[in-house]
Amino acid sequence: xxxxxxxxxxxxxxxxxxxxxxxxxxxxxxxxxxxxxxxxxxxxxxxxxxxxxxxxxxxxxxxxxxxxxxxxxxxxxxxxxxxxxxxxxxxxxxxxxxxxxxxxxxxxxxxxxxxxxxxxxxxxxxxxxxxxxxxxxxxxxxxxxxxxxxxxxxxxxxxxxxxxxxxxxxxxxx
Length: 174
Ligand SMILES: [Fe+2]
Ligand SMILES: [Fe+2]
What we know:
This protein has helices at 3-7, 14-41, 47-74, 84-89, 102-127, 135-173. The N and C termini lie far apart (66 Å). The protein has 6 helices and no strands. The longest helix is centred in the last third of the chain and has 39 residues, at 135-173. The protein is mostly helical. The radius of gyration is 19 Å and the shape is elongated. 76% of the residues lie in helices and 0% in strands. It binds fe (ii) ion (FE2) (2 copies). One fe (ii) ion (FE2) binds next to helix 3, helix 5 and helix 6.
C-alpha cells in the first residue's frame, strides 16, 4: 500500500492493524483445522448432516484466512509465516476434540464461534470511524462477523434438533 494511504488510517497505526488482523488470521487457521478434523472423526446420529455443515464451515474459515492475509499484505504487513504463531497469536485457541460424539463436537464448535463473534465484534468497534479511506476493511470485518453469527446459529439449530430427537426417543422407550 502507498505510504500516504497507510498513514491516513485515522487514529490507528497500520502496524497495529496488521497485528490485530494477524491475530484473527491465526484464529481462522485454527478454526479451519478444528472443523476439518471434526468432520473426519465425528460419530453418531445425523452424522451426515453435521459432516456437511462442518465441512462448509471449514471452507468458510479458510476463505476468511485468505481475506485477512490479502488485507495484511495490502497494509504492507506480512501474514504469520509459521504455524507455531497460530497458537501464540490466537485469541480463541484450539479445542482438541475429547469426544467424537456429535453433541460434544457441536458444543466445542459453538464455543469456538462464540469466541470468534466476540473477536470480530471488538475488531468492528476498533475500526469503526477509523478506516476512513479503506472502507473496505470495515466491510470485510462485518462480512466475516455475519458469517460467524450464521455459523453459530446453524450449529445451535443442529444441536437442538439432535437433543430434542434423543429426548423423544428416550421418552418413547421409557
Ligand atoms: Fe472465520
Ligand atoms: Fe465460523
